[in-house]
Amino acid sequence: MTEPLFLQPIFKERIWGGSTLKEEFDYPIPSNHTGECWAISAHKNGQSTVTNGTYAGKSLHQVWEKAPHLFGHYSSEVFPLLTKILDANKDLSVQVHPDDSYAHEHEGPQEFGKTECWYIIDCEPNAELIFGHHAQTKEEFERLMEEGRWEQLLRRVPIKPGDFFYVPSGTIHALCEGTLVLETQQSSDTTYRVYDYDRTDNEGNKRELHLQKAMDVTTIPHEDNELSFVEEHRTGAVITTLVQAEFFQVFKYDINGAASFTQNGYFQLFSVLDGQANISVGSDSYSINKGDHFILPNDVSNFTIDGNATIIVSQP
């Protein structure tokens, strides 16, 4: 095959969503309350579709099952990663995710935990997010939560475009109003909601909270992960290693000319955040543009990207 798998995203409406996904990427969003673009996904709750080549029209899950050689026979029952773009037009609920063992035990043997990371594509001036908490013990956490002393409990962090956060399972977190984020995560949709600002839906109902499960899985006290971003300057590109962690590696490619690459993992996921370029695989060349998402399968060993573009690249 030796060609990229270009993918058609799917979109999710959320009470905190907006219209930025259309304004920024010209995506065909279903409404002005669209919060999530599931860009590269084989998860049962939303599956991307291949748009080109041999597997055009197939879901990523179908390709994963039918053509394991494309993914280097990667040893996982499910496609391991999920790439999203999130439009936090309003504050997201304060939440936490379980690890694999807790998810298997409490949500079912087919469910996985959720470690994730965020690249801040854009945000309002003075934007912030909730990342961690100030409680030193489980008792203090529970007391502040029960008394509704959220400002005292939750840790707020200022953000700017280009910031990056690694969010292991067990981390209390929430994106806040006016933030556009690319998220790389385990392929999981398991979220435990801790606090939702007492919001109600169109019918006046508050969204469900999951306080006991959240208490079970939250890391107390909060632990910050020290990230050291490593830049590699090469002809035509600057490659920044954002994180190398248990479930994924994530890189930022700043392309400013023609750059040659060798794929050294099982397969790679690409999301073009800005600009335009061409990717050459063998004798074939493919145009890649802002908002495109694709996978380079295992049989692509060498490739060249030529143009001016910012691309987030991940691999399991």
Automatic annotation (TrEMBL):
<feature type="domain" description="Phosphomannose isomerase type I catalytic">
    <location>
        <begin position="6"/>
        <end position="104"/>
    </location>
</feature>
<protein>
    <recommendedName>
        <fullName>Mannose-6-phosphate isomerase</fullName>
        <ecNumber>5.3.1.8</ecNumber>
    </recommendedName>
</protein>
<dbReference type="InterPro" id="IPR046457">
    <property type="entry name" value="PMI_typeI_cat"/>
</dbReference>
<dbReference type="GO" id="GO:0004476">
    <property type="term" value="F:mannose-6-phosphate isomerase activity"/>
</dbReference>
<keyword id="KW-0862">Zinc</keyword>
<dbReference type="Pfam" id="PF21621">
    <property type="entry name" value="MPI_cupin_dom"/>
</dbReference>
<dbReference type="InterPro" id="IPR014710">
    <property type="entry name" value="RmlC-like_jellyroll"/>
</dbReference>
<dbReference type="InterPro" id="IPR001250">
    <property type="entry name" value="Man6P_Isoase-1"/>
</dbReference>
<dbReference type="InterPro" id="IPR049071">
    <property type="entry name" value="MPI_cupin_dom"/>
</dbReference>
<feature type="domain" description="Mannose-6-phosphate isomerase cupin">
    <location>
        <begin position="239"/>
        <end position="315"/>
    </location>
</feature>
<dbReference type="InterPro" id="IPR051804">
    <property type="entry name" value="Carb_Metab_Reg_Kinase/Isom"/>
</dbReference>
<comment type="similarity">
    <text>Belongs to the mannose-6-phosphate isomerase type 1 family.</text>
</comment>
<keyword id="KW-0479">Metal-binding</keyword>
<dbReference type="Pfam" id="PF20511">
    <property type="entry name" value="PMI_typeI_cat"/>
</dbReference>
<dbReference type="InterPro" id="IPR014628">
    <property type="entry name" value="Man6P_isomerase_Firm_short"/>
</dbReference>
<keyword id="KW-0413">Isomerase</keyword>
<dbReference type="InterPro" id="IPR011051">
    <property type="entry name" value="RmlC_Cupin_sf"/>
</dbReference>
